[in-house]
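User: My instructor asked us to take a sequence, write out its structure as tokens, and then describe one feature of it. I'm not sure where to start. Here is the sequence I was given:
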Amino acid sequence: MHDENILLDVRADVRAEKSFKKLLDAIESESNELESIDSGLTEEFLIILLNAMSWAFILSKNFRKNIKNFDARYLFLGDGEKICVSVIFKNGKMRVHHKKIDEKNLTIKFKDSKALRHYLFSPNDLLTPILHQDIMTEGNINYLTKFGYMSNHLMLLAKKLWPSH
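Assistant: Let's start with the prediction itself. The structure tokens for your sequence are:
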């Protein structure tokens, strides 16, 4: 499979490997302690996810296909804007900022940390949190599914690269 090609590249780059292993640790921690994670740790998980995603785009030609000809600007807000992270995909690159950005394609507002975790761990179930008003969006909702797909693909890739983790 194409994703297996990333294995040698990721393990060869210590920083990338640390990012992926940190993502797996965060996934395991979030799964075991969903109710006790505060907004600061949830934002940290989002940053860990985005860092690992950035490495995957750099190291995996197959994963990089997700952003080929894809320009988008996301703003993540939550816990009364205690969580504020923006992501810009442009010209096949990804940048993460810890501030609000203008001219975004999609703003994703999370009611609380639990809603953010649900979105990140259940990208195939976007309708339920929207109907329960746990997630509010402004902009094109197709971008919500695109980011959910990339996040889920990344987590599956990380678990595949380190199955014993």
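For the description part of your assignment, you could build on this observation: The beta strands are 72-78, 83-90, 93-97, 106-110, 135-139. Try explaining in your own words what that tells you about the chain.
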